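Standup notes, structure subgroup. Blocker cleared on the S-adenosylmethionine input:
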Amino acid sequence: MKDNDILVIDLFSGPGGLGEGFASYIDDNKNYPFKIGMSVEKDLHAHMTLTTRAFYRLAKQKGCLDGYYQYLNGKISRNDLFKSHEEIYRSVFKETLEGPCELGKDNDHIHARVKELTENHNGPKILIGGPPCQAYSLAGRSRNAGNKNYVPKEDHRHFLYKEYLQILSIAKPDVFVMENVRGILTAKVENQLIFPQILKDLQNPSEITESEACPSYQIYSLVEKTEEGDKSTADKLNYLIKSEEFGIPQARHRVILLGVREDIQQIPDILDKNIYPKVSVKEAIGDLPKLRSGLSKKVDSYDAWQEVVSKNAETLSKLHNIGVDVNKTHLQPYKDLNRKETVHKNKSSNQLPKHLKQWILDPELNLVLNHETRGHMESDLLRYSFCALYGEQRRFSPKAENFPTKLAPQHQNWNSGSYNDRFRVQLANKEATTITSHISKDGHYFIHYDPKQCRSLTVREAARLQTFPDNYIFEGNRTNQYTQVGNAVPPFLARQISEIVFSLLKKHYGNL
Ligand SMILES: C[S@@+](CC[C@H](N)C(=O)[O-])C[C@H]1O[C@@H](n2cnc3c(N)ncnc32)[C@H](O)[C@@H]1O
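Run returned:
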């Protein structure tokens, strides 16, 4: 690593969405200034994804991507790929800490590597990634509310951020970028909001870690400007980033904090809402090959599926006053659909806006990765047909009260509270709703807008809505892949953040 490279330490890396944004930033001299020195991830499959992607990056830099594309094509195995490029593999294996690692459990190994990297690097360094706070998340809290034995103070996930502070104390980075769910703003432990406390801790990490002296940090927002000389406002700022305002085809709202070490007298820019147009679901995924869903609990074939979907069209056409005009032909499935496609035949028909075309498409890649549907029950397919048709005609996704009684699932909470939008179609002409890791459980919140495909989104479609490049492969089985995609920071948003961090460091160092 050169002195003017920016060392990146990525914690809780998931599949590497945040890291991808930083690692892909290209400066005016056509260099990639951000170099990921280490990624820490405890999940085996996310770790595999990170390692494969790290391999891709290094092989690209060295101009030897042939093996990588052969791997994507299924011509060689992942092991063979790594064996045939041992030097690259050794380097990326080190970057991902030689295996999955858990903060809190494998601290000796993790801390030693942080020390080694930071002590040997004279240039700028940054820390990215946020501790996962499922316990803070709104969903987590409503689930826990019914659990009499749940004691928030004893939930160790509340305190994973202290592991983060510990690394902050060791690495003393110039800048940190910490991401979290919006629920962190309102989460309470023993009736006290925890967010102000987190801000305080991040401003003065050594008060908590009691380890080596750590400098203080000024916390900035990426959506609300701090004025010169007005540094006492950290707890009054708005930290909520609405991804759809920044060219992402998804209404993902996340808290992102930017910490700047106190000796750096620069105020960061904020994200610019006026650069990229809004992007709809159809623009983002419309070119991907059409697929049918599978049939669970039944022999699965195109003919059987086609029969079910056609029968559903018939059933819907006999229902009255259901809020939509059911034209059966509109619901007739496409001919000869498969559950999986690997060749991207319609690539040139894509409607991606310019910024995402450049970011997502790879001219060398004629494949579609991770594009295979899951199976659904017959009764759910009827609901999917209805939702897709409703979304198309009414331009919103039907809630429980909009469903015909005949289609209501046998669920006691169906008409109340959080279950009444148990089925949600992702509208063609709007941005998607948040792609969460719940997508790994079932597809009900992620119904494809096209009634003739009658299915939920594939991993690749979810990855597109998260702005992962098409050559980004997700390892593990389909459930693992969905979880990874749902967990990530949209890489294209991360790239915009990296630009702000680069500009701040450049102003400070002058010679980057
Ligand atoms: C929200 S995801 C991070 C997403 C990532 N920043 C991205 O943009 O792709 C959080 C990740 O932290 C990992 N994780 C949770 N606890 C961990 C721990 N104690 N040590 C290491 N990784 C952990 C989870 O497996 C999960 O993949």
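Discussed briefly. Confidence is low (pLDDT under 50) at residues 135-141.
Next: hand off to the docking folks.
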